[in-house]
């Protein structure tokens, strides 16, 4: 299993102890067709500033697939989020469920469930002249009465 480790030149070194180490990786700042043809896995290191001002690093992983025309395409399969938090800064934010009466029936993990986050899709059918359509693929969870 050979990887393309795409880390843009604008990435900032966060200096954290835990760093992703990918064995058998070709490290690039911009992927090329030549590099992608030699590998079957791909990872993009993306950094952005979180709402609290800290740098949040996302590792966007995917499979390199050969195309019909002889090229390569990357199908993204997973996102890992790495976040550094300072313990000296106290957070002034609170959970939206705090302080609201009658919320004890709600399950804590509802908002993190894959079904909840990935319930909506924008889809365009081949040959359609109507443009993309919005569909809700979510299955309503049964709540305890």
Describe the structure.
The chain has 145 residues and is mainly beta. 6% of the residues lie in helices and 34% in strands. The protein contains 2 helices and 7 strands, in the order E-E-H-E-E-E-H-E-E. Strand 4 and strand 5 form a beta hairpin. The longest helix is centred in the N-terminal third of the chain and has 5 residues. The termini are far apart. The model has no long low-confidence stretch (mean pLDDT 75).
List key phrases describing it:
single chain, 145 residues, mainly beta, five-stranded mixed β-sheet, two-stranded antiparallel ribbon, 7 strands
Summarize the structure.
The protein has two helices and seven strands.
List the helices and strands and how they pair.
Blueprint: E1 3-6, E2 25-28, H1 33-37, E3 41-49, E4 55-66, E5 72-83, H2 114-117, E6 120-123, E7 133-136
Structural class: mainly beta
- Total DSSP helices: 2
Please provide the count of β strands: 7
Low-confidence stretches: none
What are the secondary-structure elements, in order, as H or E? EEHEEEHEE
Based on CA atoms alone, the radius of gyration comes out at 21 Å
Quote the beta fraction.
Answer: 25-35%
| Sheet having the most strands | 5 strands, mixed
Helix content: under 10%
Span between termini: 50 Å
Read across the widest sheet, the strand sequence of neighbours is 2-1-3-4-5
Mean pLDDT: 75
């Amino acid at each position: 299993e050979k990887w393309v480790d795409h880390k843009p030149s604008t990435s900032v070194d966060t200096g954290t102890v835990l760093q992703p180490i990918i064995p058998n990786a070709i490290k690039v700042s911009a992927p090329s067709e030549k590099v992608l043809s030699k590998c079957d896995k791909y990872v993009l290191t993306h950094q952005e500033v979180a709402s609290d001002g800290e740098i949040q690093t996302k590792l966007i992983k995917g499979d390199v697939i050969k195309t019909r025309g002889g090229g390569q395409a990357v199908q993204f399969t997973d996102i890992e989020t790495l976040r550094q938090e300072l313990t000296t800064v106290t957070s002034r934010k609170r959970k939206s469920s705090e302080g609201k009466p009658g919320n004890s029936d709600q399950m804590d993990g509802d908002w993190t469930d894959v079904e909840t986050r990935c319930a909506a899709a924008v889809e365009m059918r081949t040959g359609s002249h109507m443009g993309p359509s919005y569909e809700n693929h979510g299955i309503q969870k049964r709540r305890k009465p």
